[in-house]
DNA sequence: AATGAATGAGTTTTCATTCAT
DNA sequence: CATGAATGAAAACTCATTCAT
């Protein structure tokens, strides 16, 4: 399974070109930034706070990242990239039965939203704070995830596995339900990630009108 | 039908005592604030921008509202209050059949999210920016709306109208789907509010396992 | 004679549109800015220092001027505009004899450099710190002053009043000599402004090869 | 002819004791510094930019120079020293006729201003940014150049070769005219350095009232 | 001879807020 | 009702400089 540390969060203008350095400083900053951005949103977060939580000075932050925006955009991109990768890999491991494929992508989505709650929270609410260039790349990544969902549903309808008059609405409903998980999920709660995934698989199959 | 102007958005400290004034100034400010808060979020919005869009001076804003927080909280409360009221009134007008009641509350929700897109966007993302006192009142209002949904679903399950192993999950999925509407809804799109409501009613009934 | 106070130094973005306000604040800032910019140059001057010398807070400065650059550019433009105006008016008051005209423009120039030493110092050294838009307007103003000199000299040569093989070089030498005055002029020194002007008139006439 | 590399630009605290090293690093830094200081002035120049243009790291700069000020002061001193040396040597090669001597020093000055445009630009505008100790040494060097001019003119007047009521003014005008050359000189222009020198010799002789 | 990582003081600018009028 | 003038705190970011390696 794809994990956060596979992707680079330090490749902005401040330190570009060379191989990704992974000193303690850089990582600590990324971790701190993720948390605080998730808690308070882009504008609610001051880079002073990020540096402080990372145990570094403000200026050290600027050694690793060329601006607040670049730091933020790096986080967002890493997160969405990882999510899309997780979906891709989940779909690669299963056949072409739409039911199985829907199961796989919903499981991957729930899993990601639960295990990477912080980034998911950010990604859900803060896209508008990306400057145009970054925003566009993000939008494309998002669109590709959406397409994965839509293609599966459309194919299921075509094959008669799903009975569904408004497949776009069905897709939106499923994605919205999954994406909302980080807003309420409590790791101490009654359902663990696996159980939760099965519940959302069931909901998704109902939404697309699959007779079980 | 409940409308925004029925509720008070000007009851802060700034203008205490006298009867609620409803001049152009106050309203223009509320409208401007709603728009800009929705566009840029709480911290991304400056009180100067609001005053400018309302065509007033900064000081005029302070005549009508005692602080940025109070202006913001007023907006949020108005919005959620209106929504809860809309749900209440929709439910009051229908019998006690859970299917009918679920239909009614989903219709009311979709209708509200479509017609009051701006506030809905704010309400969905910006609660964390409310100071504790305001946040709590909001949370209570939200909880009461959630309870309306949950009660209907639970009752439907009890009566055998809904077949649903995890009613709380079902409720979350339905609410999440409806609440996401403002993120993508396009007034020029293929489905008008009424048609959209029916689609989401259908989705909701599937989620709760109602045999149609 | 044109004086500084005739021109507006407060018409930037911060407070544009309305009639020029001339509260104490705005003037104090302009005066302070002139002095400190002259002493330390554009980059060597912090707007904190300007505000402090004006007896205002940093934020008050931003009420009057939208940025350091705009404040600086305003000063520069005022100064060069005034100078050009002084030359124009001096030339308007004398006939078309090139000798008289050269006398007039040199007198006006020396006079301006002596009486407005501070701005002259800035104008001489700090144009490169103007952002392109401002720089261009300044360059045009300067060019118009240069043209005044050049036209007079060329006309003198044509009429045989001046004997001068390289009129452009002559013009540059005259202007350079006059413009250097603020660098060494001491108000307590042996020559007052009027006497100084006559000395530079004599030098200028020699440079252009006028037989006296 | 005296060239820049004859003079020491690396004698600060950073590399004390050992013989002056003249590796590529040190030279690249001096060249870069000269250019950028000339373009943007002392305060407008960041030590980072200098290192970058020299293709070195910031820390490498600190190996060669103990501080920004020392690097800057070194440049200035080198430049003025070279200029004074150039004047001295030009005067040593000619007799004691004031006319010849004025010719020689004007030629040397124009030559220097044209060939070392960059340093001349700095020297003309940035003395005020030197800290007192450095400033004083520079002032003395400058004064010695000024004295060379003044002595020649005074002697010419005494001998009746020059007819000149205000010799100090004449000297200032001549120096100002020469010093302004870097501000407008275009190497691609109509007059090469030698031709230009002759033009300024002619101007200087006119200023001091020499009958040709 | 040179570098990467870090810092503290400083920069310009924006913010919510106040108050006399 | 409304404004113009002002403020203090904090924002993002840059700077010259240091130090272990």
Automatic annotation (TrEMBL), chains A, B, C, D:
The keyword Cell wall biogenesis/degradation does not apply. Residues 1-16 have a biased composition (Polar residues). Residues 23-83 form the HTH tetR-type domain. Residues 1-25 are annotated as: Disordered. It comes from the Bacteria. Pfam families: TetR_C_24, TetR_N. InterPro entries: Homeodomain-like_sf (IPR009057), HTH-type_TetR-like_transc_reg (IPR050109), HTH_TetR (IPR001647), KstR2_TetR_C (IPR041490), Tet_transcr_reg_TetR-rel_C_sf (IPR036271). Keywords: DNA-binding. This is TetR/AcrR family transcriptional regulator. It comes from Saccharopolyspora thermophila. The lineage of its organism: Bacteria, Bacillati, Actinomycetota, Actinomycetes, Pseudonocardiales.
């Amino acid at each position: 399974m794809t994990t956060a540390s596979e992707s680079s969060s330090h490749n902005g203008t401040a330190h570009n070109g060379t191989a990704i350095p992974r000193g303690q400083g850089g990582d600590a900053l990324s971790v701190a930034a993720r948390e605080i951005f998730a808690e308070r949103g882009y504008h609610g977060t001051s880079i002073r706070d990020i540096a402080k939580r990372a145990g570094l000075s403000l200026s050290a932050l600027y050694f690793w990242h060329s601006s607040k925006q670049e730091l933020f955009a790096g986080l967002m991109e890493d997160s969405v990239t990882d999510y899309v990768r997780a979906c891709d890999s989940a779909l690669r491991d299963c056949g072409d039965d739409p039911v199985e494929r829907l199961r796989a992508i919903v499981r991957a989505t729930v899993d990601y939203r639960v295990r990477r709650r912080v980034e998911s929270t950010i990604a859900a609410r803060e896209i508008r704070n990306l400057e145009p260039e970054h925003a566009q790349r993000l939008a494309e990544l998002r669109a590709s995830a959406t397409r994965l969902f839509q293609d599966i549903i459309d194919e299921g309808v075509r094959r008669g596995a799903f009975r569904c008059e408004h497949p776009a609405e069905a897709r939106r409903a499923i994605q919205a339900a999954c994406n909302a998980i980080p807003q309420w999920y409590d790791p101490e709660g009654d359902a663990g990630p696996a159980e939760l995934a099965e519940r959302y698989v069931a909901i998704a199959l109902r939404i697309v009108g699959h007779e079980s």
